[in-house]
């Protein structure tokens, strides 16, 4: 097995420039050291009023975010356990529109969940299926900035959001699996529901580079800080049939597409509607299997402007759809050229005053992939997001 004198975590986020004491500064990525300069770092102080330029940019970003989400989306909903095994597949529709102007704009969304045939139903005809309706809370300037701590990349068409509960996802599962037969039990038989008090609920959304399609991936972490479940909405803005993930259960088919050398660029932004850019970098990532059937990953990054080169190397053990890396980070392989990454135990990171990262990768074609990494501080605040676009060499 290949070794290194320094064990490193599996997610690399570009170094941030030197900032004042009210902003973040990223240090070397070593699991034995605190990832940020201080365990008590915070988002930039909000006591000072935004400048006219920041206010105008925030309004423009909110408008672009609403336009990006508006429309009618046909989708497929997938639930996976912490090891990447598919538990449920359901059909959904989402209708999104807006009202108001400038800083008073709001995004309103209604989710429709296809219900199963009732045990008392006689028909069973799919055309007679009932759709349950769920009103999603409005998104506006205040909620996006303060509660959802949005990380938005308008040009790249990607965003990350924070949720305080998994209530919407529980509703989808109850309506889509139990339907009219739901008796309201807290733990229905043969159905795993998300924790009522999750420690983190994170949505990372990436849009297709080729079609009017997107993938919304949710990390749901239980109160103890380990993965409760993973959720993926695969949606297309059209009136046709909903897109579907590859249903193959072959473990090799999930890791093979990621093997090889990838070259790309990353952008890191602060959380918030204004979301100023704080770092850019060029990256080269190599994934390969060694003679011990371990996944080896080498990352080289050169930061823009400062011309600082960072090299990271680690190895990971593969078990079915789960890759566990040195340093306590895991990659959960999903069908459809996707994986989701997170620490094996977030509670341990918090106890050691370390930040942590939640990652979503979508390899839509064999030679192009996108990644979105959400960075949290020890208090569970989403302080920044990093978008990667990479092509295979």
UniProtKB/TrEMBL annotation:
Signal peptide: none
Coiled-coil spans in chain: none
Stored InterPro entries: BFA1-like_C (IPR048378), BFA1-like_DUF3598 (IPR022017), Calycin (IPR012674)
Domain Biogenesis factor required for ATP synthase 1-like C-terminal residues, every copy: 256-392
Domain annotation DUF3598: ranges: 60-238
One Gene Ontology term from the biological process aspect of the record: chloroplast fission
Origin superkingdom: Eukaryota
Protein name: DUF3598 domain-containing protein
Species of origin: Vigna mungo
